[in-house]
Design a protein that fits this description.
Low-confidence stretches: none
Shape: globular
Distance between the termini: 31 Å
Mean pLDDT: 92
Strand order of the largest sheet: 4-5-15-10-11-14
Helix content: 25-40%
Radius of gyration: 21 Å
Largest sheet: 6 strands, mixed
Number of helices: 17
Structural class: alpha/beta
Oligomer: single chain
Number of strands: 15
């Protein structure tokens, strides 16, 4: 499978190229050129099909010209020693729980896959690569876990002073690990400015295989498409109607990856999402992306540090914008409706819901009440509720138990290294990793 830019369709890359150089020269974002038709394979899966098999088969579909099916299965097996879980809450409501990774956040899946893919691919080419990202905690803990024991991939993460969390002494590069956490006297935006300063020099990043672990990287985004065939394999024997997914908006990566799964021929009927200032409902009741009227050539360069996948979302429907109204359903949700939905999830199903999951559930309820059709809803829960313990307690009067792995991911880590202040300091660290 080839990947092209959302802006200049003549810019093409294979999967490894797009992962190592995630920013197309035209300032767009990489998207699949021609997704594979996996209908026969998808319909063959069932409740006994392991998540690693689903991930391996989909990996093979989008890198079949680069790596054999055996290598793709190896990538998936090494990436996923954990799996999503799906629970049936009532006859037509299911919960897809993505908080099953080592740090209890949905990013664990994408990060673990991205690391496993690069480690395997670079073993074959003899190259090395470095992730360069800005963070305030959870992403770094997830990266540190995924990078343990790897030989070909390292990570530099720039933090505001005092926000490093979830790492062990052995994770640090200077102790033989693969993560180089760096602190600055500044904000998260100041961290982002340093990362942007590096990526502005395309020749430098290409020469040193500097890439991103964020969802801007198509390698991480594509792996989120695994969630939907997994959910389908678990519920298809129990559902005899349409299937809708209800999810938090976030940066739209889960919705976009779900639409890629649909392009792979996965049976699904749409995505219900709380409306916001970026994706809302117009006066005719259709989904509306705020900058749809801005021509591509007039848009600013996509910012990998302020990720919104709306450009990828619009690209999916570029050939027929009217199709969007049949697959994307933004719903206006108020704060009281959100809180009421969180309370209902707890009282009716024993589910602790963070505010994002509660808003998605509220949107699903409003959408279903306004629909004359009968369908099944899969509610996506992204992160462990203990990350939102205060909100959960305010709604339910109870505090969700915090597992040891999440407590560890949230624990402050002392770096005890000189702080940096400019792009040249970052480049010096990159040079030290060679």
């Amino acid at each position: 499978m080839k990947f092209i830019s959302t802006r200049d369709k003549s810019i093409k890359a294979d999967f490894l190229q797009a992962v190592l150089n995630p920013l197309p020269q035209d300032g767009g974002m990489y998207v699949p050129l021609e997704p594979e038709d996996l209908r026969r394979w998808l319909l063959y899966t069932d409740e006994n099909t392991p998540f690693t098999s689903i991930a391996g088969s989909l990996t093979s579909a989008f890198v079949k010209d680069e790596f054999s099916p055996i290598i793709c299965e190896t990538i998936a097996t090494k990436a996923f020693r954990f799996s999503p879980e799906i629970k049936q809450l009532d006859e037509s409501l299911f919960l897809l729980d993505l908080a099953k990774g080592p740090t209890g956040i949905h990013r664990d899946f994408g990060i673990s896959f991205l690391v496993s893919f690069l480690e395997t691919a670079l073993q074959l080419t003899g190259e090395k690569a470095v992730f360069l990202d800005a963070s305030t905690g959870e992403m770094g803990a997830s990266l540190a876990t995924a990078l343990r024991g790897k030989k070909n991939v390292k990570s530099i993460i720039i933090y505001p002073k005092g926000t490093v969390r979830g790492m062990e002494e052995g994770d640090f590069v200077w102790n033989g690990g693969n993560v180089y956490p760096v602190e600055i006297d500044g904000t998260e935006e100041d961290c982002s400015k340093l990362v942007r300063g590096i990526f502005r020099d395309r020749a430098y990043t290409a020469e040193n295989n500097i890439t991103l672990a964020s969802g801007f990287n198509i390698g991480r985004l594509m792996s989120q498409a695994f969630f939907y065939p997994f959910a389908f394999s678990r519920i298809k024997g129990r559902v005899h109607s349409d299937i809708f997914y209800a999810l938090a908006a976030g940066n739209y990566s889960n919705m976009v990856s779900g639409l890629y799964a649909w392009q792979f021929a996965l049976p699904l009927n749409g995505f219900i999402v709380p409306a916001n200032n970026f994706l809302k409902v117009d006066l005719k009741g259709n989904p509306c992306v705020i900058d749809s009227s801005v021509p591509v050539e007039e848009r600013s360069v996509s910012d990998p540090l302020k990720l919104f996948n709306l450009e990828r979302l619009k690209d999916i429907f570029s050939a027929n914008q009217l199709m969007m109204k049949h697959f994307v359903f933004p719903v206006e949700v108020s704060e009281p409706e959100t809180d009421l939905a969180a309370k209902e999830l707890f009282e009716n199903y024993g589910i602790f819901a963070d505010q994002h999951t509660a808003r998605a559930f509220a949107a699903a309820k409003i959408h279903k009440n306004s629909s004359a059709e009968d369908y099944a809803t899969v509610l996506i829960s992204r992160d462990h509720p203990s990350y939102s313990a205060d909100y959960v307690h305010s709604i339910t009067g109870k505090t969700p138990e915090m597992p040891d792995n999440i407590r560890k991911a949230m624990t402050h880590t002392e770096v005890s290294r000189p702080r940096i202040s400019n792009v040249e300091d970052v480049k010096a660290i990159i040079e030290s990793l060679k």
